[in-house]
Design a protein that fits this description.
This protein has 2 helices and 13 strands. The strands form 2 sheets. A 7-stranded antiparallel beta sheet has the order 4-3-7-1-2-6-5. A 6-stranded mixed beta sheet has the order 11-10-9-8-13-12. It is mainly beta and 178 residues long. The relative contact order is 0.18. Helices cover 5% and strands 40% of the residues. The chain has 2 domains: 84 residues, Elongation Factor Tu (Ef-tu), domain 3, CATH 2.40.30.60; 57 residues, PRC-barrel domain (SH3 type barrels, Roll). It is elongated, with a radius of gyration of 18 Å. A hairpin with a 4-residue loop joins strand 12 and strand 13.
């Protein structure tokens, strides 16, 4: 399953897909710590330009410099040359537009494509909608919110029976009491 494009909000075709966030400043020269939601953190820099969510707007930005750091990235953005100015971006979401992504391979899905899809049992019972996904060592997990929250393993065949992006539904072989 492709993990790029994770998002915690329902997907809207014209909005960027959230790919990471700015955690905060690093040092005094305007560097920013970036948390990437991509499978490999450095993959995020391939999707230029980035779009930063500032209020209700998405503002395009380039990247001046990049360094790998621990499990994330350090970046410098144009116009943010000192710590105080860079600190204003702490918590800012980083997005890209779908056209910037390569097509998902057959039988793979971007997490952003699954967010907001209804999850229905094989018997037709609606369990809720996919709120977000969690990456674990063994398999990814759908976090489904309905009358209560459910954690459903993303295991194709045995648990995930069908993903219908066009019909906007995921069918699961899952006991609703779990």
């Amino acid at each position: 399953m492709a993990v790029d494009g994770d998002s915690h909000a329902p997907r809207v075709e014209d909005d960027p897909i959230i790919m990471g966030r700015i955690a905060g400043p690093y040092g005094v020269k305007g560097w920013l710590r970036v948390v990437s939601y991509t499978e490999r953190p450095d993959k995020l820099i391939e999707y230029a330009p980035w779009y930063l969510r500032r209020g209700d707007a998405w503002i395009p930005t380039g990247i001046v410099a990049v360094k790998r750091h621990a499990k994330g990235l350090l970046v410098r953005l144009p116009g943010y040359e000192d710590r105080d100015v860079a600190a204003e971006l702490a918590g800012t979401e980083i997005g890209i537009y779908r056209k910037q992504l390569p097509p998902a391979a057959e039988d793979e899905y971007y997490w952003g494509d699954l967010i907001g899809l209804p999850v229905v049992t094989l018997d037709g019972l609606l369990l809720g909608t996919v709120d977000h996904l969690i990456e674990t060592g063994a398999n990814d997990v759908l976090v489904v919110k309905g009358e209560r929250e459910r954690l459903i393993p993303f295991i194709r065949g045995s648990v995930i029976a069908q993903i219908d992006l066009d019909g906007r539904a995921i069918r699961v072989d899952w006991d609703p009491d779990f």
